Amino acid sequence: MRASMTAKASDCDRAGCIWGDPSGLLGAAALSAMALKNGGQNKAALELLAPRAGESVIELGCGPGTGVRAALKRVGRGGFVAGVDQSATAAHYAAHVVHRAVLRGNAVIMRAEAADLPFRDLMFDRAFAVNTFQFWPDPARALREVARVLAPQQRDPASAHMTVAFSVGQIVGPALGGWLAERTGSFASPSWMAAAVLLTGAALTAMAARTRVQPTGATAY
């Protein structure tokens, strides 16, 4: 497969599009910043996901490709990693980062929306996303697409709770935290709120894990 392929992707017309759909020189600068900023989160997501050697993994919103590169180290040369991003600039950037794996047939980078994945059913063992959920135009459809491309034995209720907890936090947290800081004149309240939300998410995950019968197949940060 080619290093970069094109599927339907919608235009981004919001102020935050420099991060959600980077393009041009500013987009390249944003992707460089992402490569530095998201390293720890990529590591945490992959540790939670725990892909094994020889497995197939997909990253939704691969950005600069550092998450795909990290996943390739986990699955080895016998595995396969796909990265998709709605930004053509990001797809090109990521394809360059992992071009050797692409040439070997161990990776592919495609421009595509999370809600319209250009892959066959049951193709992947694991899926992950880092700092991208808030940019998905249709999150519900995107999650259905993730379920479609994941092998059935890898679907897990715990991963659904984690996805919701982290994603809602990404969307609501900054706005609510800023409002509380402005009202109270202190960052103490937002910090306590963030801690409470994290504990709640952990509790929900633990409750779901009690009924788990299969390994985690998807996660989001």
Descriptive account of the structure:
The structure is a single chain. This protein is α/β, with parallel strands linked by helices. It has two domains: 4-154, Rossmann fold (3-Layer(aba) Sandwich); 160-213. It has nine helices and six strands; from the N terminus they run E-H-H-H-E-H-E-H-H-E-E-H-H-H-E. It has helices spanning 17-20, 24-37, 39-49, 66-75, 88-97, 99-104, 139-149, 157-184, 188-210, and strands at residues 4-6, 56-60, 80-85, 107-111, 126-129, 218-220. A six-stranded parallel sheet has the order 1-4-3-2-5-6. Helix 4 links the parallel strand 2 and strand 3. Helix 8 (157-184) packs antiparallel against helix 9 (188-210). The two termini are 28 Å apart. Mean pLDDT is 78; it is low at 1-11 and 211-216.
Short overview:
The protein is α/β, with parallel strands linked by helices. The protein is built from nine helices and six strands, in the order βαααβαβααββαααβ. It has two domains: 151 residues, Rossmann fold (3-Layer(aba) Sandwich); 54 residues.
- CATH classification class of the largest domain: Alpha Beta
**CATH second-level architecture of the largest domain:** 3-Layer(aba) Sandwich
Number of domains: 2
Whole-Å distance between the termini?
28 Å
Low-confidence stretches: 1-11, 211-216
Identify the overall geometry. globular
Main sheet attributes: strand count, strand direction, barrel closure = 6 strands, parallel
Order of helices and strands: EHHHEHEHHEEHHHE
Classified in CATH, the superfamily of the largest domain is: Vaccinia Virus protein VP39
Strand content: 5-15%
- Strand arrangement in the largest pleated sheet: 1-4-3-2-5-6
**C-alpha-based Rg, rounded:** 17 Å
Mean pLDDT across every amino acid position: 78
**How many H/I helical runs?**
9
CATH topology description of the largest domain: Rossmann fold
Q: Strand pairing plus helix content: what structural class?
A: alpha/beta
Find the count of extended strands (DSSP E, 2+ residues): 6
Q: Which bin fits the share of residues in helices?
A: 40-55%
